[in-house]
Amino acid sequence: MMRIDCLQYANWSEKIFRQMREGGVDAVHVTIAYHESFRETVLNFEQWNRWFEQYPDLIMKGQWASDIDRARETGRTAIFFGFQNPSPIEDDIGLVEILHTLGARFMQLTYNNQSLLATGCYEAEDPGITRMGKQVIKEMNRVGLVVDMSHSADRSTIEAADLSERPIAITHANPHSWSPGLRNKKDDVIRAVTSQGGMLGFSLYPHHLKGKTDCTLESFCQMVADTADKFGVKNLGIGSDLCQDQPDSVVEWMRVGRWSKEIDYGEGSASAPGFPPMPDWFQDNRHFGNIEAGLRAVGFSDENVSDLMGGNWYRFFAENFTPRGVT
Predict the structure, then answer these.
(1) Residue 280 to residues 65, 98, 283, 284, 291, Cα–Cα distance (Å)
(2) Containing domain of residue 202, as a range?
(3) Which of 70, 196, 255, 263 is deepest in the core (most CB within 10 A)?
């Protein structure tokens, strides 16, 4: 059973790398930029290069789907890089190709706010993809950098799916109909993405779950089943949004960056602005087996469980990371 998690932002350590191996996690898409500039993002690439040197028996850099095969053969986890904000390209479309060359494979067109490219889900108005956004989507399609709309507003997401000549992704979110929230996606948004070959990764972040920390495994897996009935099982996977061992100051960085002097509580509350506790059935990378068991319990076949836990992401990686005209 291949296991691919299409979003984590942990406080990385040898402990977590070993938990990945204990959990049989073959590949993880990790966030290496929230609000960083290009140069600051390069420093994050450098830090990961040091970790690849320090822990070569546990992790390796992932650039292509074939690297997941190599990771499985050698008992390691392939690490793929992505950004939750287009800030690393600053206002320079030429940096799209540079960052893909460095190893980036996903880039959100927005975090929660309006960006130079599109509108985030916390803005009151959503005018859609900007002039620069249309050009950047075209360039991302050319080089093989996946358009990620996880934090984007509805119109912007639908327009991105329509404008993009390659499938796009919502790497970490859940259906709004199951758990209402600004970050969860309405059916017309999910349909716009999946109907054109794009992917939805289900999130385990408690603010995205029905009942939050108290969400049951059965409820989560039934939500996956209901979504598969609506949109097809082949365009769904896991994007846990696991933020393991992060201090609350990191949540503040995620939500505020440098754009405000005030605390933005986002989907939390003023009384509990930090990370909410994870559900007891998914605490870290060792617990993906619980999700597999839960999916079987709600009626998924072994083949479909395999698709949901990694097979669908593997196919998506294989088709969308390679530059146009390169095989």
Answers:
(1) 31, 41, 6, 10, 12
(2) 4-320
(3) 255
